[in-house]
Design a protein that fits this description.
The chain is α+β, with helices and mostly antiparallel strands. It is built from 12 helices and 12 strands. A 5-stranded antiparallel beta sheet has the order 2-1-5-4-3, with helices on both faces. It starts with a helix and ends in a 5-residue tail after the last strand.
Amino acid sequence: MKSTKKTASQNLQKAIQEIEDYAIVLLDFKGTIIDWNKGAQKIKGYAPEEIIGKNFTTFYTKTDVENGKPAKLFKQAIQDGIARDEGWRVRKGGDLFWASITITATHDEENSVIGFIKVTRDLTERKRSEEMVDLLVKKLSYQNTQLLDFAHITSHNLRSPVGNIGVLLTLYKEAKTQDEKNLLFSKLESVSAHLSETLNLLLESLKIKEDINKERENLKFNDLFQKVSDMLTAQITESKSKITTDFSQAPEIKYPKIYLESIFLNLLTNSIKYASQDRTPEIHFETKITNQGLALVHTDNGLGIDLNKYKDKIFGLHKIFHRVENAKGVGLFMTRSQIEAMGGTISVKSEVNKGSVFTILFNQKT
């Protein structure tokens, strides 16, 4: 009878050794690897002679080890008899794979824990598929939001000029004299030009929103800002603006050059255009590394914006908050479109007659 049991046990061990779809590892009480099947070699990359005698934390990321995850799983297996977990693990060579693991405590005849059996499945392909689906859902959700936003902007900005054209055409038909007709026709031309300009801006905005794959380049903030400053030399000199920068925290970024140049141009132009006449304009740009990633912060001491009244309109098309010559309310609208197209965000803090702070958070890929 003993011989039969021994043979059955040996056959079971041999069968376990031959399994290739599951990594089966035997551990002692301290987590030292004492045996290793073909599945473990296939999934984790080590031959038995390379790994036996090492601790099983070899396969955990540095963060998991520092956070004490292996110890917590051992504790759970001792308390409950079994512990389960999913997460990124490390193969030989440093590559990561998504592992689904089960750790079962083994006992001696007195029911004391003497070791563990650790079974691992490689679910990397499933995890990558889930991430792709999640990314696609987020992308579709973002595009849907952008299209709804675009539809709202289009409806809002086209309703007025189209309505005006209808009224002017009616008045033109009813006009009694040629002078009246000439005057109405000139107004029609003006409204038509405004409508054409708005349509072009909206189409450009839609093109930007769709251009999420625009080529990114390695750019130096200082070099690009200097180029923009040179373009605005006359305005800077005339306004006597004091401009400072500090790009030391993050000197470079991978971003579409035309977009970053446009962001600098619009923000700098606005600070000069909406400067207070009571003080010297002070304009500052700096980069920061935040918990949310790379940020560009733009500060000025200009006229400021009443956020209680205009908070939801700041980045709208043709939204103007001060009576200033040549103000069209286009720059911030286009700036937000470009930033959001690249997956980033822009926010503002402002106080009337004290100035504004614009913060751009770039996409993590940057």
